[in-house]
Amino acid sequence: MNILIFGPNGSGKGTQGALIKKRFSVLHIETGVIFRENINKKTDLGNKAKGFIDRGELVPDEITVPMILNRLQKSDCKSGWLLDGFPRNLAQAEALADALTKAGMKLDHVIEIILPREIAKKRIMGRRICAVDNNHPNNIFIDAIKPVAKEGKLYCRVCGSEQLGVRADDQDETAIDKRHDIYYDTKTGTLAAVNYFRNRTNLIEADGAPGVEEVSASLLARLS
Questions:
Q1: pLDDT tens by residue, 152-171
Q2: Residue 113 and residue 204 in contact, taking contact as beta carbons nearer than 8 Å
Q3: pTM for the full model?
Q4: Which domains does the chain have, with CATH numbers?
Q5: Which residue of 80, 96, 126, 211 could cross-link 144, Cys pair, CB 3.0 to 4.6 Å?
């Protein structure tokens, strides 16, 4: 089973991707990891990508797409893959679809986690990080994972630690808005990429507003 997953920052896309990976034994592939692996291993594509990154430029699709395709063709992807973080725009969607077709690789499903922009932003800014274990989910804007409030202080809902912090980039509204500008753009951005696949493969839409369990139950039922 080969899957693309889309969702704005704050939609819980990473969490749902991990659950899908576990349920269907597919490899969860994040494009950022592909870049780091190629750069660290000094592959030809990695060296080319590093040159653009070092100059503060975007890596061209003619480097990114082959890099991703090479990863999807490795032996550990034979049982299926879930690609997360690419494509980010319409041009990349077209390039990826063309590359998959030429490689004889079928795309079985495209998942879109739908979440209104303002809710997505609040969820990002509401994240609270437990210093004991940063995998403990706490968010002041999500009822199901709100930290415990006692005597004017917030405590981790999992371990009870008072050591809750925030990531600086989670509080940078300008940076959040820039990422969301790209995602919610229906003409050339990420939502344009989603719409490109809408009539080309099985598109599964999931409301990202409910809790993690409700969203995962909806997705897993339609992927089965």
A1: 999 999 999 999 999 999 99
A2: no
A3: 0.89
A4: 2-116+186-223 (3.40.50.300)
A5: 211
